[in-house]
Design a protein that fits this description.
single chain; two-stranded parallel ribbon; 8 strands; 40% helix
Length: 216
């Protein structure tokens, strides 16, 4: 029996620890701290290479751990904008997406009050890593206070960014990461320096990409 199967059969007395900034306190804070090495190292490297902080940080958001790990190092730098790219699936108005911050509602999920996908929506994203029906509560707070802006990136937009980075740099990004890249492209004209979190490699996504590009 898998952990998820056990959870479903024993939901009343079983707690499942998801590896993201989700669930009841203290788990979102714990994972944020574990992931904060992303932001701490990125901040140090930006200062070394450019002598300044970035104008904006961009990352993909499913549960939201890699994005929160990046954002945390810059949370008190109000001149550094935050952008989170959600799984827009077939479109935020399509009924098939994974974008609770953009097109969801307030609710309770997995022991946390946050933004969730409504019952009438099929949770969908071309990226399995973004295919989650809610988001970490700290992201919901960032959205509510205006500290971060979240946008839904469609499957097609993410796949285009996946191909663009692969061709231009020889770096094959994860499809999760490709959502952040697509959003970075759309906001690039508004900022001088962008820091984008490349949160994973695309080796695992090659079959999906080949199918969608009709290369199989």
């Amino acid at each position: 029996m898998t952990a998820l199967e056990d959870l479903v059969e024993n939901v009343e007395d079983t707690h499942y620890l998801v590896g993201s900034v989700v669930g009841p306190d203290p788990f979102p804070r714990m994972v944020r701290e574990f992931q904060s090495v992303i932001g701490d190292e990125a901040r140090e490297q930006m200062l070394q290479k450019t002598g300044a902080l970035p104008d904006a940080c961009v990352a993909c958001v499913g549960g939201g751990s890699n994005a929160m790990g990046l954002f945390d190092a810059f949370r008190d730098d109000n001149d550094v904008a935050f952008y989170g790219a959600e799984g827009g699936g077939k479109g935020a108005d399509s009924g098939e997406h994974a974008a609770p911050l953009t097109a969801g509602e307030d609710g309770v999920l997995h022991g946390m009050k946050t933004r969730v996908i409504d019952d009438g929506t099929d949770v969908h994203s071309v990226s399995a890593g973004l295919d989650y029906p809610g988001v970490g509560p700290e992201h919901a707070m960032f959205r509510e206070t205006g500290r971060a802006e979240y946008r839904a990136v469609t499957d097609d937009e993410a796949l285009e960014a996946f191909r663009d980075l692969s061709r231009a740099e020889g770096i094959i990004p994860a499809l999760e990461t490709a959502h952040g890249l697509a959003l970075a492209k759309s906001v690039a004209d508004d900022h001088g320096t962008l820091l984008v979190s490349l949160s994973g490699r695309g080796d695992k996504d090659m079959a999906t990409a080949a199918e969608r590009f009709d290369l199989s």
